[in-house]
Amino acid sequence: MRRALPWLAAAAILLQTAPAVAIGLPQKTVTTEVYGNETCPKAADGEIVVCARRPENERYRIPKALRQTRRTDAPSTSWAARWAGVENASRYTMPNSCSTVGAWGQTGCTQAMIRQWWLERQSGR
User: Fold this and answer.
1) Tens-place pLDDT, residues 60-103
2) Sequential DSSP letters for 3-27
3) What pLDDT score does 100 carry?
4) Residue 100 gets which letter from DSSP?
5) Which sequence spans correspond to the domains of the chain?
6) Beta strands in 1-125 (DSSP E)
7) Which of 2, 59, 75, 112 gives 35 a disulfide partner, CB atoms 3.0 to 4.6 angstroms apart?
């Protein structure tokens, strides 16, 4: 009995898969969208074609799932204004900033000293 068990299991597996192969079930499923009065493409051998019909005015639009709706919490400032704010906030880390933080901060200190010297010289002190 124990020797016959593996053979019976193999035979059961073969019998389960044999009808599917003999019937010729589709090997491929094609899903497509058609617009307006277009005809659905014909299925080739071994494939199923599923068509979704959409109105003609949706043909060249971004699909609804991908469209971004207007958010109510979106800020009303432009990207340029936002970037100016970021740039202004990080100005002390930029070159010519007269800061010990960031790259080339000392060049800004030198320029500030020269500017102060020039203003003092112009005022006649």
Assistant:
1) 888 878 887 666 656 677 888 888 888 888 877 777 777 776 66
2) THHHHHHHHHHHHHHHHHHHHT--S
3) 72
4) S
5) 25-61, 92-125
6) 28-35, 47-54
7) 59
